Amino acid sequence: MEDNKKNIAVLIRTYSRILDTEALIHIIKTKWNKHKYTIFVVHNGENDGYLATNYMKENSHYIQVKENTGHRTGAASLVKEGFNVLKNRQDFSHYIFIESDFWLLDDNLIDNYLKKMDKNKTKIAAAIWVEKIRSVAVDFFIADADYLKKNSLLLDWDNHAEQYFAKYIPHEDLTIIEELRPVHLPRLARFLNLSIQLIDGDRFRIFPKATALTHHIETLASDKNKAIQIKKGLANSLAKTEIFPAIQDVPAPQKLYIQYFSKFIPQSWWIKYITKHLTLFFNKILFFK
Asked: What are the beta bridge partners of residue 207?
């Protein structure tokens, strides 16, 4: 098994989410064990008072970015600054780019998609962000290192990173991570009374098939320390193991299954898509007549 392990760089990007970052580092170091991971943390919150902790610096290759250019452009600058460090290393087969609040509770998903990428000869594994326009999620994705070095244009995101990413990744180079679909609750299911622990702002927080937990802790509780305790407790319950010792488990919310089955719920854009193509089809028939 040791010979099959890949050497992977994990680039965590963060601005203010210091508690999330520390927790994610802990998860990677204790629960990701199928491959060899080297953690890089790229951070641009220092000048705004979001100080990196000793734990972050001692357990990663810490990269400080002094300027924060804003929510969207700041994320792009973090990715590019981190990549500028990674591209000078020759020892990594793959890169994992991950937001600090995206907690993947083990690396089974990573291992499965590395195998699929090898089998399908694809170079990027990522989820669909908005199903309607088939944009590609940037909160978490896996990239072949050599491919990304040759195609670094993929990281020159504009203000719509997910749409940009989708535009510049050739279809044949992309493997879709199905366990992270859908990211958003379909419109037809928004009448359901779902827990804030499961859905926040029409965006899923828990992905049971991926064993992943994400999104903003401040919506779980106004006090950040209490909120991070809740998220850690949910992580323990979701993983069915003690990821965070001395943290009381928080039972997984009811209707957890809704995330997986949401991919089968009819969506309004399906009807528009079908209507459009049926119209084109019948117009062709009438034209040829």
From this structure: 212
pTM: 0.91
- Dihedral in degrees, nearest 10, Cα atoms 161, 150, 8, 211: 30
pLDDT over threshold 50, residue 16 = yes
- pLDDT the model gives residue 71: 55
Residues constituting the chain: 289
- From CA 40, how far away is CA 24, in angstroms rounded? 12
**Per-residue model confidence (pLDDT) at position 264:** 84
Q: State the DSSP string of the chain.
A: -GGG--EEEEEEEESS-HHHHHHHHHHHHHH--SSEEEEEEEE--GGGT-PPPHHHHHTSEEEE------HHHHHHHHHHHHHHHHTT--S-SEEEEEETT-EE-SSHHHHHHHHHHHHHT-SEEEEES-TTTT-EEEEEEEEEHHHHHHTGGGG---S-HHHHHHHHS-GGGEEE-GGG--SB--GGGTTS---TTTEETTEESEETTTTEE-S-GGGT-SSHHHHHHHHHHHHHHHHTS-SSTT----PPPTTTTHHHHGGGS--HHHHHHHHHHHHHHHHHHHHH-
CA distances from residue 53 to 19, 49, 57, 58, 218 in whole angstroms, order as listed = 9, 12, 6, 9, 20
CA 141 to mean position of chain CA atoms:
6
* In the block, residue with structure tokens 């528009």: 272
Report the percentage of the chain scoring pLDDT > 90. 79
Residue 63 CA to residue 81 CA, distance in Å, equals 8
Residue 276's pLDDT is 62
User: What CA–CA distance (Å, rounded) separates 11 from 78?
Assistant: 10
Phi, psi of 46 (to 5 degrees): -60, -45
How far is 289 from 278, CA to CA, in rounded Å?
17
